[in-house]
Design brief:
Chain lengths: ~500, ~500, ~130
């Protein structure tokens, strides 16, 4: 199915609007209020622009903006196809909430270098939406690498030795991945001479031999696997948790890691195509990686005492849900995967927001110190509970929905064992998240006298994301239709 | 301007400037810099104009004294030489603007006038090397440029004469080898004209004398371009030379050797000869790959910024050598584009080192801290951008060099070289982030009274502007690289290597 | 083989001369001796060109009415000689610059011995 393309400035504007906010943010470094206003305005504008692309994507009219030839044979081009719109919608929508939350967080902790913080945050969002709308591999790599570099100042924001070494590790992993991706893209270019993402795969017409396809796929996997934290390439993610919590929330639960997973979906469905992967059993390779990551990630999460690290391992494991759904190579599975891409974002961001609120209020980072805080911070912990239940897959929260799709697709493609993996992982989720809820509400804590909720700047966003978890669970229509369009484009029907 | 004289114009402008500067600036020393800038600007304008003329009406030939080749000396302005002259003259112009203050600060006043005169002489030599179509003429210009360069290095800091002497010895041997190669070639073919030789050589065949000639010439150019393991002269020369000299020769100097190599291998001997008959291209690419790794690893261990950049140059010249050695159209495109890209990046980085030296009094990496960055925010930003480009992150120029070279290695199925290119960009990340981390994250040292050195002492506009122009060009040229490649570079490709984009 | 060896006897001398020059550059520790080695190398190359121009039974390339201009085998090739004029100039200039540098080095470090120089450089501040 080739959707009619409509030239439109909207994708470009959606990418650029946050970039345009950067100089404004830098110029108003003296006035925090102005700086925050710019951030919020850019976030709102970005979300509005992406929202404006939504009807077209749903109707199958793809907005395209073609800039110029970036290297001979490849153009710098933005294309708001349903998959891209879905990802951009998630990232830009949650950016608004994260911006609000960031304001509360940075004020609450009296953070240093807030200008740099907000400026690079805006760059990251530009890059993320650029990744979402990239029409070909070179454009994708361009934004992917910008995202890598723009995230670095946020990871090392605290400038402690620990943060600096985390930043090094982050760069070592992501830059290596970028290099592999470039090699993979260059190779693909020489093979087929065309790098434009196509539903069903760039390689669908080319008869690739196994000795080409397999190494090429592994190169791609290395390239996008780091950001999507596939084991054994995941270890940068828990380390990067040294970043300020809003960064962990939006970037390390939504934008950056999802950019990796999004890239994997692009590679699987738009570069290689299902047929090629099946022919060389590459889907099995991917499934093995994903299953390992899901289970081992959950098990490692159980052992973490640091709340953010526990959430990070949980992210590692949940990202592989999406990879698993992609690797199953069927329409319903892909829908499940894409739904999880969106829904996991709302759930995980809630949890990170809560962790941040606790940190700002109580300066507590470890699970073992959270006894009884439910009484001091009822709204926060209520939201945390909702997010946790969502991740465990309790209906009617949205986590249930995506897992249901994934599970039924696993059975539908004749791999019921994988549904078992999902159930097992759900139990593990419960095992590492619900004790936190239990501690906070049912154990008696100390040192909490006179402690209240964090500032409304923080509580409101986290309650909103928690409510979003519920709302999207009840009314998943838009996302479901978008995901359905993507799946229909690739698998037909 | 006289269109038919166009090829000879750029070297002659510099040559005359070299003569006029000592005369005119005899009384008024400040005139030297002004004249140098004027000459560089004129030459840059001519060479940019030449590009358009070549695009319009093809290759130009200029016969000196009206003697037809192969008897007379011929200057050839083809897309490749037009491109390279434009690159070197524009870079020289930008660097010369910057050098005003560093020369004033680093050199005693009586040396200013000869300094600029020598710079002009060197540029004249470089332009001549690129434009000439005659092998012996090339040798003469090579020596003119080298002799000027020895002088330019030797006026640096205390150790610079030693570095210059070492460069002189090695450079003389390199020039000698080249001349010997030319001799063998001449004895066996009776011609010194490149185009003529190209026609004759197939008939001469691949006798041992021809192979020896080729090897000697490659050896000579290898020394001039600091191809590993012939790079011994480079680190000291770059480190101890005055800032103005190192920022001129790092982006330009070694590229001239690379250009000579390219000419000899593909435009005179031809692809088949250098890959099949004598697998010299493969040798070059292996040496280049070794140089990439060696330079990158050595760069990590350096404490002096200029020295780090010098080793980084060895690695980057390796990129060019590798692209040449791949002997396919994509590799050559990558190599020639990298001449431009690396020229811009390295010039920018050396200008940054110069700014640090002038304002902070040093450019030692270990002594850099966030205080330096606070004092010189724009310089630090330019450094960061250039460093990102060296690492090869899009949309800076470094990414695109890497892209074409990666395409070239994959086309040849040379996985080792692909791995080397990719690994090198990670090594670049290691040693550049070492500096960036210090500049941005290391708390500023406090002075004796416990205060941080306050105030912004950013480099003067005449230094900052060239630095920023170069930094900005890294992105602009990066985005426009398809224009340059499609519009100009694909036309230079030698026969047998026409571009085929899949 | 014998013909090749004997016929090229002059080139073997040139080869020997080059080797001596290179050995001087590489092995001698004194900078001035290095320059001498350089000059020997240069002379070898110049002789190489000049030797290549010679022909048996040919005379200097000045038009001799008795010989006429038609037969080029009667005159030796003038071009290498012309080229070498330039090369000699280059060689002289190189030596000149080299000596200037040596003077600078002597003034600053008071030695021309390479090893001593390296030792001094190592302990030199800056």
């Amino acid at each position: 199915m080739s959707a009619p393309a409509a030239p439109s400035l909207l994708p470009l504007l959606a990418v650029l609007v946050s970039l345009a906010a950067v100089p404004l943010i830098l110029l108003s470094s003296r006035s925090p209020r102005l700086r925050e206003t710019w951030t919020l305005a850019a976030a709102a504008a970005k979300f509005g622009l992406v929202l404006a692309l939504l009807p077209g994507a749903l109707r199958g009219r793809i907005a395209v903006f073609d800039l110029f030839e970036i290297v001979p044979g490849v153009r710098l081009e933005l294309r708001a196809d349903p998959l891209g719109v879905l990802f951009a919608l998630v990232a830009s929508g949650l950016w608004i909430l994260t911006s609000l939350y960031s304001i509360g967080y940075t004020r609450g902790l009296n953070e240093h270098k807030q200008t740099r913080y907000f400026a690079f945050f805006a760059v990251c969002l530009s890059a993320t939406v650029g990744i979402a709308f990239a029409a070909n591999l070179v454009t994708f790599i361009l934004f992917y690498e910008i995202l890598t570099i723009a995230t670095y100042p946020l990871v090392i924001h605290k400038e402690t030795p620990e943060a600096v070494s985390a930043g090094r590790k982050y760069l070592a992993f992501t830059l290596s991945a970028g290099v592999l991706l470039i090699a993979a893209a260059a190779w693909s270019f020489l093979l087929v001479g065309d790098l434009d993402f196509k539903p069903g795969g760039i390689f669908s017409g080319a008869a690739l031999a196994g000795k080409t396809a397999v190494p090429l796929f592994l190169l791609f996997l290395g390239g996008v696997g780091v950001k999507s934290a596939v084991m054994p390439l995941h270890s940068w993610l828990p380390t990067a948790m040294v970043a300020p919590t809003p960064v962990s929330a939006l970037l390390h639960a939504v934008a950056v890691v999802k950019a990796g997973v999004f890239g994997l979906v692009r590679v699987v469905a738009f570069v290689f195509g299902p047929d090629l992967l099946r022919r060389f059993h590459l889907d099995t390779v991917l499934i093995v990686f994903a299953v390992t990551t899901i289970l081992v990630g959950s098990l490692l999460a159980l052992r973490q005492d640091n709340l953010k690290r526990r959430l990070a391992y949980s992210t590692v494991s949940h990202l592989s849900y999406i990879i698993l759904g992609t690797a199953l190579l069927s329409g319903p599975a892909l829908i499940g995967a894409l739904l999880h891409l969106a829904f996991h974002a709302t759930m995980k961001i809630t949890l990170f927001f809560c962790a941040g609120a606790i940190y700002v209020r109580l300066h507590r980072e470890n699970v073992s110190e959270l006894n009884g805080i439910g009484k001091a911070m009822p709204w926060t912990m209520a939201a945390f509970t909702l997010g946790s239940l969502g991740l465990c897959g309790v209906p009617p929260l949205n986590g249930f929905l995506s897992k249901w799709f994934l599970g039924s697709a696993a059975v539908g493609t004749g791999r019921p064992l994988l549904a078992g993996v999902l159930i097992l992982s759900g139990l593990l989720n419960a095992a590492y998240l619900l004790p936190i809820v239990q501690r906070s509400f049912f154990r008696r804590g100390s040192g909490l006298e006179g402690r209240r909720e964090a500032s409304p700047w923080m509580v409101v966003p986290l309650v909103l994301t928690a409510v979003l978890t519920l709302v999207l669970g009840l009314f998943p229509g838009t996302f479901h239709r978008l995901a359905g369009r993507v799946a229909a484009g690739i698998f037909g029907g | 301007m006289i269109p038919t004289n166009a090829p000879a114009l750029a070297p002659l402008i510099f040559l005359f400037a070299a003569l006029i500067i000592p005369l005119a600036a005899f009384k008024v020393r400040r005139l030297a810099w002004v004249l140098a800038i004027a000459a560089a600007a004129a030459a840059a304008a001519v060479s940019v104009w030449n590009i358009f003329r070549v695009l319009e009406s093809g290759t130009f030939h200029y016969r000196f004294g009206g003697w037809p080749p192969p008897l007379g000396i011929e200057y050839v302005l083809d897309p490749l030489s037009a491109f390279i002259t434009a690159v070197i003259n524009l870079t020289a112009l930008v660097v010369l603007v910057h050098s005003h203050l560093t020369v004033a600060a680093e050199l005693p006043e009586r040396k200013h006038v000869p300094y600029y005169a020598l710079v002009m002489l060197m540029m004249s030599g470089f332009n001549g090397i690129v434009l000439t179509g005659d092998f012996f003429n090339l040798y003469v210009f090579l020596e003119i440029a080298s002799l000027a360069l020895y002088g330019l290095i030797a006026v640096g800091d205390r150790k610079s004469p030693v570095a210059a002497f070492r460069y002189l010895v090695i450079g003389m041997v390199g020039g000698g080898f080249y001349l010997l190669g030319v001799g063998f070639l001449y004895i066996n073919s009776g011609s010194l004209n490149m185009a003529d030789l190209k026609a004759i050589l197939p008939a001469v065949g691949a006798g041992p004398e021809i192979i020896v000639a080729l090897c000697f010439m490659v050896l000579g150019f290898g020394i001039k371009m600091a191809l590993f393991p012939l790079h011994g002269w480079l680190p000291d020369a770059y480190t101890y030379a005055p800032t103005a000299t190192s920022s001129l020769m790092a982006p330009i100097g070694t590229k001239i050797g690379a250009y000579g190599l390219l000419r000899v291998l593909f435009f005179v001997f031809g692809v088949n000869f250098v890959t099949r008959t004598v697998p010299l291209a493969q040798v070059v690419s292996w040496l280049a790959a070794a140089g990439i790794l060696y330079g990158s690893i050595m760069a990590m261990a350096q404490d002096e910024l200029k020295r780090m950049l010098a080793f980084s140059s060895i690695a980057q010249v390796g990129y060019i050598g590798l692209g040449i050695g791949l002997a396919n159209s994509l590799g050559l495109l990558g190599a020639v584009l990298h001449v431009l890209n690396h020229g811009l990046m390295k010039a920018c980085l050396f200008l940054v080192a110069g700014n640090f030296r002038l304002r902070l009094g040093h450019s030692r990496i270990r002594a850099l801290d966030s205080g330096a960055r606070r004092r010189m925010p724009w310089t630090s930003a330019a450094f960061t951008l250039a460093a990102l480009s060296m690492i090869g992150l899009p949309p800076t120029v470094g990414f695109f060099s890497k892209w074409y070279l990666a395409l070239g290695t994959i086309r040849n199925r040379s996985w080792v070289f692909l791995a080397v290119i990719l690994a090198s960009s990670l090594l670049n990340a290691v040693y550049f982030f070492r500096v960036i981390e210090r500049l941005y994250l290391r708390p500023a040292l406090r002075d004796n009274e416990g205060r941080e050195a306050e105030g912004r002492t950013e480099a003067a506009p005449s230094m900052l502007l060239p630095t920023l122009v170069l930094a900005a060009s890294l992105i602009v040229i990066g985005l426009l690289n398809a224009v340059i490649v499609n519009g100009l570079l694909v036309r230079f490709l030698p026969p047998g290597l026409e571009i085929v984009f899949p | 083989m014998r013909d090749f060896l004997v016929g090229h006897y002059f080139y073997w001398f040139i080869f020997l001369l080059m080797t001596i020059g290179l050995a001087g550059i590489i092995l001698k520790r004194n900078l001035i001796k290095k320059v001498i080695g350089m000059s020997i190398l240069q002379v070898a190359i110049i002789l190489f060109f000049v030797a290549s121009a010679s022909k048996w039974d040919a005379t200097v390339p000045i038009l001799d009415p008795a010989l006429g201009a038609a037969d080029v085998t009667k005159y030796i090739n003038p071009l290498p000689h012309c080229l070498m004029l330039t090369a000699i100039v280059v060689g002289v200039a190189t030596s000149g610059v080299a000596f200037a540098l040596i003077i600078m080095i002597w003034r600053r470090f008071r030695t021309l011995d390479e090893n001593e120089l390296l030792e001094k450089l190592k302990h030199d501040p800056d």
